[in-house]
Amino acid sequence: MWEYKIVDSSLAEKEGFLKGRTVDSVESYLNSLGQDGWEIIDIDFNMDPTIPGGPTHFHGLAKRRK
């Protein structure tokens, strides 16, 4: 049996000059989910191409064994 979790960039820590979510903070958030046993099964990223390294926004779905 599986349990599911909605993942969203709003849960990633804000950092940097503009206090936005950078690629590094999003990677850190996703890695913390992996350490808790979550596997991302679907994700949609939207990055601002005018600002290298961020900000980035995403939403998706993760699962892990229940």
Largest beta sheet, briefly?
A: 3 strands, antiparallel
Spatially, the strands of the biggest sheet line up as: 1-3-2
Write down the domain tally: 1
Radius of gyration: 13 Å
Distance between the termini: 6 Å
Shape descriptor: elongated
**Poorly predicted residue ranges:** none
Query: Can you count the beta strands?
Result: 3
| pLDDT averaged residue by residue | 81
- β-strand amount: 35-45%
Class from helix and strand fractions: alpha+beta
Helix tally equals 1
List the secondary-structure elements in sequence, H or E.
EHEE
How much helicity do the residues have? 10-25%
Structure report:
Helices cover 20% and strands 39% of the residues. It is α+β, with helices and mostly antiparallel strands and 66 residues long. The protein has one domain (2-65). The chain has a three-stranded antiparallel sheet with strand order 1-3-2, covered by helices on one side. Strand 2 (39-47) and strand 3 form a beta hairpin. The radius of gyration is 13 Å and the shape is elongated. The N and C termini lie close together (6 Å).
Short key terms for the protein model shown above:
66 residues, DUF4177 domain-containing protein, 20% helix, YjzH-like, 1 helix, elongated, alpha+beta
Write a brief caption for the model.
With 66 residues, the chain is of the alpha+beta class. It has one helix at 23-35, and strands at residues 2-8, 39-47, 56-65.
